[in-house]
Hints:
2 copies of one chain form a homodimer.
Chain A: E1 8-14, E2 19-36, E3 43-44, E4 57-64, H1 73-83, E5 88-89, E6 99-100, E7 105-107, H2 122-131, E8 149-150, E9 160-161, E10 163-170, E11 176-183, E12 188-190, E13 197-199, H3 212-218, H4 222-225, E14 233-240, H5 244-261, E15 262-263, E16 273-282, H6 288-309, H7 319-325
Parallel strand pairs in A: 4-7, 14-16
Antiparallel strand pairs in A: 1-2, 2-4, 2-16, 3-7, 5-6, 8-9, 10-11, 11-14, 12-13, 12-15
Amino acid sequence: MSDLPDITIGHWTDRDAATGCTVVLCPNGVLAAVDVRGGAPGTRETDLLRPGNVIDRVHALVLSGGSAYGLDAAGGVMRWLEERGQGRDVSPDHEAPVLVPIVPAAVIFDLSIGRADVRPDADAGYAACEAAGPGEIEVGTVGAGAGATVGKALGPERSLKGGVGSASERTDSGITVAAVVVVNAFGEVVDPDSGRVVAGPRGDEPGTFDRTLEIMRKEPLLPPFAVEANSTIGVVATDAVLTQEQALRLAIAGQAGLARTIVPAHTIVDGDTIFALATGTNDTETDILQLAALATRAVERAIVNGVEAATGLAGVPSAREWAREGQ
Amino acid sequence: MSDLPDITIGHWTDRDAATGCTVVLCPNGVLAAVDVRGGAPGTRETDLLRPGNVIDRVHALVLSGGSAYGLDAAGGVMRWLEERGQGRDVSPDHEAPVLVPIVPAAVIFDLSIGRADVRPDADAGYAACEAAGPGEIEVGTVGAGAGATVGKALGPERSLKGGVGSASERTDSGITVAAVVVVNAFGEVVDPDSGRVVAGPRGDEPGTFDRTLEIMRKEPLLPPFAVEANSTIGVVATDAVLTQEQALRLAIAGQAGLARTIVPAHTIVDGDTIFALATGTNDTETDILQLAALATRAVERAIVNGVEAATGLAGVPSAREWAREGQ
């Protein structure tokens, strides 16, 4: 992440299959926490991050398409890290290191667009590591966002493209709170500053949206969606010095940003999951109240960014393309 | 609640001390769940509501001022229920009933306004039961909302009054989702439909607000607030038939409404807690995806209602009074 040089991000994208994965690399090990809020999560290595459990540092995080299959991408990331001598040394005497990289992961459901039989695997995770580097994060229809969609209350055929979004906030004292989010939601995306719908279920007229809540008020929707999970997943990262309990609050604050921007959020058909990372390289005084407020804001902006940066794929138009049709 | 006749609500208010409590009565026992999201909660009998634990029905819920002291109000509610033969029968043979009413509770911190030495006690809880009845819920500076305040990033002296708010949503098929919320937040209250600030930290000019996020970006705020918790607490209730797992999702959806309306939400100095109740008296087909979307909306509207209905007390003006000063 360009504002957090200890963290690099890489994508692997299969545009033909409309899927991909994104790795957030912090090979030296960074304090982490996670908050799972949706009712249909797909995750790996999240229980070990619970405060009080023994592990509190990770070497990478994986965000992936491919539904539960995509969790395999973490295996490729582990291999890439092990080959580079990174991981938790679990050898008894530390003379012959036995390295276990800690690589939690969360996935989105994207099997309903593009090809369902091609999913990010271990090689895809490895390739995402190879692609990781410093500088600006590539956003939009890329990596784990390649098959992401939003606004599905009228069915997938009225949805719009989601994608990977990124945003960064900074305290006046120079502490950074950055977010990268894969936006793939049952709900619509609204700009919380204005209430404007950025991407919702496509209305009958080009460029228009139907409102999700009013669609849902009419009748129960669950049966057609029961088998199809969605999930917005992401990472909030800071250079501040935090405890794991504080990092968990940063993740909780990130979920508040998700709830402010995706309506409805945290549903039974979303597996909304936010990881928090704290590199601890900036010892400027702060508190978790300050950083959490910025984390909420960073996630809001990252979600709007992800949808606005998306481009159409596999027959699903982007919000920008849909707006142009209405002009 | 006027749209849910099986549930009645009563307030006990001490305007001199600027505190009070609110009881949500469902004496025949109603399915319940709870979601605690803030970092500084004050609760009683919430662990027993966790899905998988043995208890899933409650006979009342208590929302109270008085910080942790206010949890005593639940004792008075238990006494009132026991006297009326209501509660869970724990006698071995059910011949001589031994009744234990299940009365979970959550509190807000209101000791910094009015009198700190007067807190809702068991008698206050009993009095709130006596006051409970059908019809419209009294909202604003009443009951547990008597000492509620919001918008505290510039300190309590720049805050505005919070209060009790209520709102009800309905599916086209006739299922109700109603919310009653005690709005007492560190953050500012915004209208999520427009982004408009309804009540935030008072600005230098009458009728204006400073924006909480920009105040917080300037410097850490925690020390002066560390000892002073806030907390928005409430109940989302429906007449639908739900499982306890579904009721928990209703509470989670209510928290999303809280996050959309209070910024920042779920902070380390808030004990944001939402209970869900499902009376099961309306067997119209629905699903939790539909009801949860309405629950989010009901909580949003209840929070805005609580702040707009509030009147000034103990030197803290209401949002309406502050707006008038700017005219």
